[in-house]
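User: I'm putting together a small comparison set for a docking exercise, and I want a reference complex before I start. The sequence is below, and the ligand is glutamic acid. Could you produce the 3D structure with the ligand included, as structure tokens?
Assistant: Of course. I'll restate your input first, then give the structure tokens for the complex.
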Amino acid sequence: MTLRQANPTPGGEGDAAHYTDPMLAMANYQLDLAAKHLGFDQGMLDWLRTPERVLEVAVPVKMDDGSLHTYTGYRVQHSTARGPAKGGIRYHPNVTKEEVVALATLMTWKCSVVGLPFGGGKGGIAVDVRALSRAELERLTRRYAFMISPIVGSRRDIPAPDVDTDGQIMAWFDDTVTMIRGEADPAVVTGKPLDLGGSLGRGEATSRGMAHCTEFAAGRLGIDLSKATLAVQGYGKVGRFYAEIMYNDYHSKVVAVSDISGAYFCGDGLDINAVSAYAKQHNGGLAGLTDAMSGVEFISNEALLALDVDVLAPAALEGQITARTAGDVKAKLVVEGANGPTTIEGNTILNDRGIVAVPDILANAGGVTVSYFEWVQGLQFDRWDLATVDRRLLNVMKESFDNVWDVAQQHKLGLREAAFLVAVDRVAESMTVRGLFP
Ligand code: GLU
């Protein structure tokens, strides 16, 4: 840890009340704490907090019925101090500029805490993909890719999937940039399909990284995962693969899963392979699971958060563990698969109650770590086998987790505060050593 400045003066602009987006409030509250710990002055704090570039674009789309609809899209580069900006693209009705800034900011700290040579970025379009046909989705993606292409590139800013975007969308994105530039750039996006230079292991990487963090934290807390009970909130790609890995590889008892339709509980443990097969047959959704499987009970999403389990994994959207819900959490360990699932107040309550939470920027960093592997393979026109990807992912997660755990012990901090301390210190170090241009 390096102490760069005396006379810390955090607060001010960074006060939580200043932000309307709770995730941005949380990210900057944690930055303030870290900056205070590191002794940064207000000038350094402002530089660390302010996104480098915020691009807002119009995305007009000709709909299948001939009408025209104009969506609003964003691409935010929070920091490029440690390398090109890196982060996903989210398609969701709740996307706002502030939310994308928050997510880009979290990417900076995420890439830093696991030691990747990337800064942080994020993109998004306020859209409900369920209301679009495949052809409309393709036109939306291609127009958005065109609109943000001036700031994107394998050495500038590298998008990837996020909520409601996938390999197909990355393929359209890649193809659009390739057409515009007239040359292949196999590292311009990650999370691509395998046939387009995607990496083996990328699809389940976020969940595998979460599983590693669960194992490391369980080891420290004396939880035997083969006897442990788990509740998983969210059954998108991250939650589903996580539940499958914990069930099949660690033989844990997953007692509850959920999606937008509600939560599904079975005290004896769910047959996760059967649940996943059901979801696959039902367009990815879990609605109707209680009728299809005996012994499965429907509960609310809030009841899932309050279950008496060993491990709770919020792997859906932000803002789940809050002032209202955190007091009811009974899990010993929380592993954050989603970005920003815990608010400032929720985090304080978890800390006060001695519940260990592996924070999003560490727990879900497996995805961007394998994105980094994909980027390296793309730059070198190389292919790695799955064993190499998995081994290297394990090494990154282990080293990062152990480092954050040790910093937490050493400074008597929660894991989130320790993770931010490590991440912010590294970014500030890169900024300091680069100096200020011009
Ligand atoms: N969207 C993922 C995240 O939030 C992955 C980002 C990436 O691979 O660049 O970490």
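Residues 86-88, 160, 162, 190-191, 339, 364, 367-368, 371 surround glutamic acid (CB under 6 Å). The first strand starts at residue 53 and ends at 62.
User: Thanks, that's exactly what I needed.
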